[in-house]
Design brief:
154 residues; ten-stranded antiparallel β-sheet
């Protein structure tokens, strides 16, 4: 069994082509439930922006009573304090009319624990394919308290 010293490991890490995993610059994750017009909706999402400015992630929304599900690829994330706005493209839907639509939604992280106010999110707004609407050029406010779940914005 070979043993490596700390200096040897550090040198190996600094060699060209050595992959160093850098943490994301911004990140937003969450999942939970809300009731809208008597309808239970479940959501989940994860998004990050890397040091090179590239944003990526996924989101899922399911309106249970309407049996409608959206799966979305996130390609834009803007974080401001405890709020994050995300946008991208709907990749799958139980209603084919929504597929390839641009979307936008926002979330708010209000802390942890029973004494913290509830985290919040906006509706998911859908726009036509190629609308040009994204999280860099359109602002919306998270206005709905989540009933169960957790949102984290870093």
């Amino acid at each position: 069994m070979k043993k490596f010293t700390l200096p040897a490991l550090l040198c190996a890490a600094l060699l060209p082509g050595a992959a160093l995993a850098l943490p994301p610059v911004d990140q937003a994750t969450g999942s939970g439930h809300i009731t809208l017009n008597g309808e239970n909706r479940t959501f989940s999402f994860t998004a990050k922006t890397d040091i090179d400015g590239t944003s990526s992630g996924e989101a899922q929304l399911q309106a249970r009573q309407a049996d409608n599900r959206l799966h979305m690829n996130i390609d834009c994330l803007v974080v401001s304090g405890n709020q994050a706005t995300m946008s991208g493209t709907v990749t799958q839907s139980t209603d084919p009319a929504f597929e390839n639509s641009d979307f936008l939604f926002a979330v708010e992280d209000n802390g942890e624990g029973k004494k913290a106010p509830p985290d919040r999110l906006s509706l998911v707004f859908l726009f036509g394919t190629g609308s040009g609407v994204n999280c860099q050029n359109t602002a919306i406010a998270p206005d709905t308290d989540i009933e169960r779940g957790n949102i984290q914005v870093h």
